[in-house]
Each structure stands twice: as C-alpha cells, then as structure tokens.
Task: inverse folding
C-alpha cells in the first residue's frame, strides 16, 4: 500500500507541475507590448524583431534595430539593449508552449508572443568578429559571425527597470528574428 500512495503522490506532483510550471507563472502584462518578470524586475518585449521586420538580422543590424526602438521610445523607454547570454538562460523554461514562426516549441514563459524567431542575439561578444546567440527551443548557447543572419536570428531586447535606475533590478525586452532580444 505505501508504494501505491507514493505512486499517487508522484502522479499528483507531475500533474501540478504541468498545470502550474515552476518559473513560468507570474509574468505581468504591462499592456504596452511588454511583460515584467516580478522575480527579477526585468521587462521584456512580448514579441521580437521578426514580428516587425519579417526577416532575420545580423548582430550589427540587431544593434541598429534596438537603436531605432530607443529613438521611438518603445513602451516609454529609451534605454533598451540586447540581453546577456546569462539573462536568456534564466528566462528559458523547459515547459514552454509558445511556438516560433516555424512552429517550433520555445522555452518562453506564458505572456510572450508566438510566431517569432527561434534564435536570439545577445550582447555577449566572442572576440572581434563573433557574438553569442541563444536557441529558445532547447536552451542552446551558440556563437556566429556578427555579420551573418543565416539562421534568421532575431532580436529580443530589454531595459533596466525603474528600480534599476535607482540602483536595483533590470528590465528586458524580447525581440527576435536572427533576431535581437533587447534589454533595458
């Protein structure tokens, strides 16, 4: 009988974790094209550069894209930037159900927009000619030549939170399409 009780407890735990995935709940929709992670204070763009441009970007184009978003004061901010590889690794969840533009499952928490890029550029450079990008499907860390957009990398970007400006946490913006994910 103890084995049956243990089995039932395990089934219940698996059910609860699938219904309420750890780390996936709690993103706040800011009603301005962004979501906030209340655990980190990071603000992320819901979509990515692929949603805007319908094409992938190289790393230099990703930086230009973020510059344009800053000039537009997207969501009322002008200090968006590419996220770090570490920040994207922290954003990723194994229970993600959002689909990319190619119908691949992404490890993004609920609240993000589907139909964007699978790969996202980061601000992390590797030498003079390479930069790191992140695979949202399987938590993949890769680097590529900065002037290539061969995998249709996108841009997700973020910005420091209001608290960061006072010295605390940061906000992130998600943009994609050999895409760029921006950080503010």
Result:
């Amino acid at each position: 009988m103890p084995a049956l009780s243990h089995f039932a407890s395990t089934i219940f735990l698996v059910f609860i974790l699938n219904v309420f995935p750890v780390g996936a709940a709690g993103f706040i929709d800011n009603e301005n094209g962004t979501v906030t992670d209340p655990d980190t204070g990071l603000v992320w763009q819901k979509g990515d550069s692929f949603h805007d441009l319908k094409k992938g970007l190289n790393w230099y184009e990703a930086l230009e894209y973020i510059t344009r978003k800053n000039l537009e004061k997207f969501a009322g901010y002008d200090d968006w930037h590419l996220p770090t590889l570490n920040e994207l690794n922290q954003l990723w969840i194994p229970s993600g159900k959002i689909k990319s533009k190619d119908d691949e499952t992404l490890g993004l928490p609920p609240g993000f927009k589907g139909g964007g890029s699978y790969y996202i550029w980061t601000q992390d450079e590797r030498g003079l000619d390479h930069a790191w990008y992140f695979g949202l499907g399987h938590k993949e860390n890769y680097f590529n030549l900065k002037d290539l957009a061969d995998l249709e990398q996108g841009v997700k970007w973020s910005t420091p939170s209001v608290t960061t400006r006072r010295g605390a946490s940061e906000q992130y913006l998600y943009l994609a399409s050999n895409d760029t994910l921006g950080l503010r």
Remarks:
- Confidence is low (pLDDT under 50) at residues 6-24, 162-184.
